[in-house]
Design a protein that fits this description.
3-stranded antiparallel beta sheet, alpha+beta, about 500 residues
Length: about 500
C-alpha cells in the first residue's frame, strides 16, 4: 500500500513538471535557488514599474555600507520567496492536499508582492516614519497592499494585470486572499468592505479562503511560529551575500512538511518529529544574523545617520512631486519614485535649507560616521523607558536639566535599543511548533522537552542591548560619567518594573 502511494505521488509530480515545461514559463537563474521556473502571470507582475522599483531598495538597508557583498535587493528576494512558496505548495499537494492551481498562483503572487511597500533602505524607512509621523503607525505592509492595488490596475499591452489574472481564473475573492496573505486579516482596501464572509465561523477572520485551508496562510508570512518561506529565502540569501554559513536546509523542510489536524480540528503545516532539533538551526541562524550583521554596531550607526538625514530633509521641506518624504506614503504614484536613490536626490538638491541633510550624507560618504561610545547588555528591560524617542534628551530629561553642561553633552548623542532572541521573545520557539510522527502523518502533536534534546539553549532572549553613539568625533565622556548614566538607566528600569 505504501509503495502504491509513493508511486502515485511521484506520478502526480512528474505530470505537474511536464505541464510546467509545456506552458510558457520563464526561467530565472537565481544566485540562491539556481534555475527556477515562474508562471507567465508572475512574469507579467515582475515586469511592472511597481515591482521593478524593488531593484533599487537594498535588502539589508545600511548593511551594504559595512558588508561589500550585501548588495542584493528586495527584487531578487521577492522572486525567491515566490519560488519557495510554489515549491512548498506543490510538495503539500503531492502529499494529498486539495490545493487548486488558483490557490498555488495566489500564494506565489503574495510571495512575489509581499515587500512591494518597502521604503528606502528597507526597515530603515519604517523607523524614519515612526519618528516623522508617529501618529500614522505606518508599516510597510500597508504600502504593499496599496502598491499591489496600483499594480493590478496597470495596463500591459492593452490589458490590466487584473484582467490577465481573470484569464487564469483568479477573481475578486482570490485577490482578497492574496492581500490577506500579505497583510493579515482585514487589509485596508475597498474590496475588504465589499466582500462578505464565506463562512459562519466567528473564530475565522479571513475572507479569501475558508478555515479548511487555514494552512495556506502559514506559507508566506507565518504569524504564529515565524517559520515561513519569506524567512527561508532571506536567511539563505543574506548568508550567501554576507559570507556566512547557514545550517538550516529549506529543501529538507519542504520534504518533510505535511498538513496535519490538531485536537481543535485546525489544519497546520507540521514537521516530522525527528526534525525538531534541526528546526533550532533556523532560529539560531536568525539569532546569528542579527548579532553579526543586522545589528552590527557600524551598520546601526550608518542607519541612524540615514534616518537623521531623512528627518533633516523632511524639516527642510525637501519634496518629491510637491510632497514631503513622509507624505509620499499616501500617494503610490509618488511613492513609486521613492527608493534608496533618495540620498542622491537630497545630496544634489540646491536648496540652502537642505544643508544639514546634505552634510550628514556627505559624512556617510567620507566615512565620518557617528562614533560608538559604549553599550551594555541586559537580560530583562522595560521598553517603556525608551518608547517615546531615541533621543537622549527624552530619556534623561531630568538629568540634563540639572546643568547646561549635561544639556550640551547629551544633545549630541543617539541611543539604539536592540532585542536579540530566537524569534519568540523569552519563549522556546519549538514550543509553538507542531509536529507529526511517522506512524500517523495526519495528526498534529507537540513535543515534550525530553523528545527534542537536553542539550539546547536555556535562555532564548538577550532582551535589551543599549548602544550609545555621538555625532562628534570625540564623545567627551569619561568612565565616571558613563557609570553614572548606566546607573540612571538601571534605576529607572527597576522603578518602572516595580510599578
Amino acid at each position: 500500500m505504501a509503495t502504491g502511494t509513493s508511486e502515485s505521488t511521484e506520478t502526480s509530480i512528474q505530470l505537474e513538471s511536464k505541464q510546467m515545461a509545456t506552458e510558457n514559463y520563464k526561467i530565472f537563474n537565481d544566485s540562491v535557488h539556481g534555475h527556477i521556473r515562474l508562471h507567465p502571470l508572475l512574469v507579467k507582475i515582475i515586469d511592472t514599474p511597481e515591482f521593478q522599483r524593488l531593484r533599487n531598495i537594498k535588502q539589508l538597508g545600511g548593511g551594504y555600507f559595512v558588508f561589500p557583498g550585501a548588495s542584493h535587493n528586495r527584487f531578487e528576494h521577492s522572486i525567491g520567496v515566490a519560488h519557495l512558496a510554489g515549491e512548498l505548495v506543490r510538495s503539500l499537494r503531492g502529499h494529498g492536499e486539495e490545493i487548486t492551481k488558483q490557490d498555488e498562483l495566489c500564494v506565489q503572487i503574495a510571495g512575489l508582492c509581499h515587500d512591494l511597500g518597502h521604503g528606502p533602505f528597507s526597515h530603515v524607512f519604517e523607523t524614519f516614519m515612526k519618528e516623522a509621523k508617529p501618529e500614522l503607525n505606518w508599516k510597510h505592509e500597508q504600502a504593499s497592499i496599496k502598491m499591489f492595488e496600483q499594480l493590478i490596475n496597470n495596463r500591459m499591452n492593452g490589458k490590466t494585470i487584473k484582467e490577465i489574472m481573470d484569464g487564469y481564473g483568479l477573481d475578486e475573492q482570490d485577490i482578497m486572499f492574496i492581500e490577506e496573505l500579505i497583510f493579515g486579516p482585514n487589509p485596508p482596501t475597498e474590496r475588504n468592505n465589499q466582500l462578505p464572509m464565506q463562512h459562519a465561523d466567528p473564530n475565522w477572520c479571513y475572507k479569501g479562503r475558508p478555515k479548511e485551508k487555514s494552512y495556506l496562510y502559514e506559507i508566506v508570512a507565518n504569524k504564529t511560529t515565524g517559520i515561513d518561506v519569506d524567512k527561508m529565502d532571506y536567511f539563505s540569501r543574506d548568508c550567501l551575500h554576507l559570507g556566512m554559513k547557514s545550517n538550516f536546509s529549506h529543501e529538507r523542510y519542504m520534504t518533510f512538511a505535511r498538513v496535519c489536524t490538531t485536537e481543535n480540528n485546525e489544519k497546520k503545516i507540521c514537521m516530522r518529529d525527528k526534525e525538531a532539533l534541526n528546526m533550532y538551526e533556523l532560529f539560531h541562524v536568525r539569532y546569528l544574523l542579527h548579532q553579526n550583521a543586522y545589528q552590527h554596531r557600524v551598520t546601526k550607526a550608518i542607519e541612524r545617520m540615514i534616518i537623521d538625514a531623512l528627518l533633516a530633509a523632511e524639516h527642510a521641506d525637501f519634496k518629491l512631486d510637491d510632497k514631503k518624504i513622509s507624505e509620499t506614503v499616501s500617494d503610490m504614484r509618488t511613492y513609486l519614485k521613492l527608493t534608496d536613490n533618495i540620498l542622491d536626490d537630497i545630496k544634489h538638491d540646491v536648496s540652502p535649507q537642505n544643508a544639514n541633510a546634505k552634510e550628514i550624507i556627505e559624512r556617510i560618504v567620507r566615512r565620518d560616521l557617528y562614533k560608538f561610545v559604549d553599550s551594555k547588555l541586559y537580560g530583562k528591560f522595560n521598553l517603556k523607558l525608551v518608547a517615546r524617542s531615541q533621543r537622549w534628551l527624552d530619556l534623561f530629561g531630568d538629568l540634563v536639566a540639572r546643568s547646561q553642561r549635561w544639556l550640551d553633552l547629551f544633545g549630541d548623542f543617539r541611543v539604539t535599543v536592540i532585542n536579540f532572541d530566537y524569534g519568540q521573545g523569552e519563549n522556546n520557539p519549538i514550543d509553538s511548533l507542531w509536529f507529526y510522527r511517522r506512524d500517523n502523518v495526519r495528526k498534529a502533536i507537540t513535543l515534550s522537552p525530553d523528545e527534542v534534546s537536553f542539550i539546547k539553549p536555556a535562555v532564548f532572549q538577550e532582551a535589551k542591548v543599549f548602544r550609545f553613539y555621538t555625532k562628534s568625533t570625540a564623545h567627551g565622556l569619561n568612565d565616571e560619567q558613563l557609570d553614572e548614566l548606566w546607573h540612571i538607566i538601571e534605576r529607572r528600569n527597576q522603578h518602572q518594573q516595580d510599578n
